[in-house]
TrEMBL record:
<dbReference type="InterPro" id="IPR037523">
    <property type="entry name" value="VOC_core"/>
</dbReference>
<dbReference type="InterPro" id="IPR029068">
    <property type="entry name" value="Glyas_Bleomycin-R_OHBP_Dase"/>
</dbReference>
<dbReference type="Pfam" id="PF18029">
    <property type="entry name" value="Glyoxalase_6"/>
</dbReference>
<feature type="domain" description="VOC">
    <location>
        <begin position="3"/>
        <end position="121"/>
    </location>
</feature>
<dbReference type="InterPro" id="IPR041581">
    <property type="entry name" value="Glyoxalase_6"/>
</dbReference>
<protein>
    <submittedName>
        <fullName>VOC family protein</fullName>
    </submittedName>
</protein>
Length: 130
């Protein structure tokens, strides 16, 4: 049986991206980062088999593609507070005009241009399709 080991984001500046995602998610380095690779884990995860999604950052040298073919959905109990916090960490708002009138998510991008959504789980089912 397969399981997802980690989600990998490509980055240009691994230190900047690592700082952003550690602060955004409260994650920690699994081990010391190399020049082109780091895996971030929830702080309670002590072994790779433990529950909790890991996030890996990889320096590839390839430019970001827009629109991206994959993105993260981050669930927030207080969406506006989390968006404000993420923007203060270096996230940027995405000028996107595809929101339906009842959208419960906001599209942001990290310091490397990787897009993610901040979903307000207080208003809708977070597992519904976007």
């Amino acid at each position: 049986m397969l399981s997802i080991g980690s989600i990998v984001l490509t980055v240009e500046d691994i230190e900047r991206a690592g700082n952003f995602w550690r602060a955004a998610l409260g994650y920690v380095n699994r081990r010391e980062p190399s020049e082109d690779w780091v895996i971030l884990d929830p702080p309670s995860k002590t072994h790779w088999r433990d529950p909790g999604t890991s996030l890996a950052l990889s320096v590839t040298g390839y430019p970001q593609h827009y629109p991206p073919r994959i993105h993260l959905d981050l669930y927030a109990d207080d969406q506006s507070a989390e968006i404000e916090r993420l923007l203060s960490l270096g996230a940027r708002e995405v000028d996107w005009h595809g929101y339906p009138p009842d959208a419960d998510w906001i599209v942001l991008e990290d310091t490397e241009g990787n897009r993610f959504c901040v979903v307000d789980v207080g208003t809708e089912d977070p597992d519904r399709e976007e």
